[in-house]
Specification:
- This protein has three helices and two strands, in the order E-H-H-E-H.
- The chain is mainly α.
- The longest helix is centred in the last third of the chain and has 12 residues.
- The protein is 42% helix and 6% strand.
- The chain starts with a strand and ends in a 13-residue tail after the last helix.
- The radius of gyration is 15 Å and the shape is elongated.
Length: 72
Amino acid sequence: MASDCNNIVRSFKEEAMGIYGHVIWDIKARQEDFLFFEIVHANRSTNVDAHRLTRSSIYASLGRHVWFIDPP
C-alpha cells in the first residue's frame, strides 16, 4: 500500500497511532487478509490520478459518479 501522507506511514510502523489512529487500526485489521503487506510513502506526484479523484469528490454532490476519460 502506498500513501502520500508520511504521518500515516510513520504511525503504521510505530506503536503510537497518532491522530490517524482510526485509519491505522482499520488497515492493520485488514492486512491479515494478504500473504504479504507493506506500506510505503509515495510522493503526491506519483499519485496524481488518485489525488485528483479524491479532491474532486469533495465538491461533488452525493451519489455515484463515474469518469471514463478525464475527471473534473
